[in-house]
Amino acid sequence: MEDETGPMVHDGDVPDSSSLSSDGQPKPEFIWTLVQIASIWAISDIGYYLLPTLGVQSSYNESSVAITLYYFFCAGIAVITFWPVYLTWSLYGRWTTFGSRLTSLAVWTLSFAAFTVFAAYVLPHLPPVDWKESWNPPDVRIATPSYFLPKTIEIFFQQLLIVALVLTFAARRYSLWKISIYCAVLFGGTHVLLALGGVPLGYVVRFMVAATVFGFVFPYLILRVPNGLAYSYIVHWLYYAASVVLPHIFAVPVK
């Protein structure tokens, strides 16, 4: 199945011979790419929880600039590591990168403006959250405008890894359905690392379930929708915006 942008992900599950060895097994390059994606993701999460050893508080609200720089560095690592993978995007997507620059500019400008307005003007005017639990609240429950500075870069970093994962599976000519299932399982599974933050199991499960759902949707956006990475990023960002807003609306202090 092809169009003017190049070969598409096949509807069948026939692996591309370029990713298979002579005995029909995945080539080491394919396995190595998956190992790199998993390693960078895990190490970045572990590194975040080790920031206090460098005198940086593990809080998006209190150490927003330092954590922003940390995830900016991680994003750079992802870009450098997976640049050859990103260059194959045109082989598996149905659209040319920035094929319609006007549309891309509109998506970029409107989303950037909306994110800024929400963080800078809407969030500070929400009702306060009345926290009564015995455990320390996660940053997202008591988020300040500063929270979204590092969170915005962290989401970008995660999207870079997701794109690398999607394209790596697409190179094996997996169907979109199969890619979506793999991404759902893997993206949901990575959120088990939230347990390192000392939050309750229910909190971890909630984010794992949400990540599984989004992980199923992201491949379709990335491979089949013009400006799909932007929409994938927007959906990812909006989930955290909703996670911030809902406690303010439904957990208003009783007067």
UniProtKB/TrEMBL annotation:
Annotated region (Disordered), positions in chain: 1-23
Keyword Transmembrane helix found: yes
Transmembrane residue ranges: 30-50, 70-92, 104-123, 155-172, 179-197, 203-223, 230-250
Keywords, comma-separated and alphabetical: Membrane, Transmembrane, Transmembrane helix
Protein name: CAAX protease self-immunity
Organism this protein belongs to: Mesorhizobium qingshengii
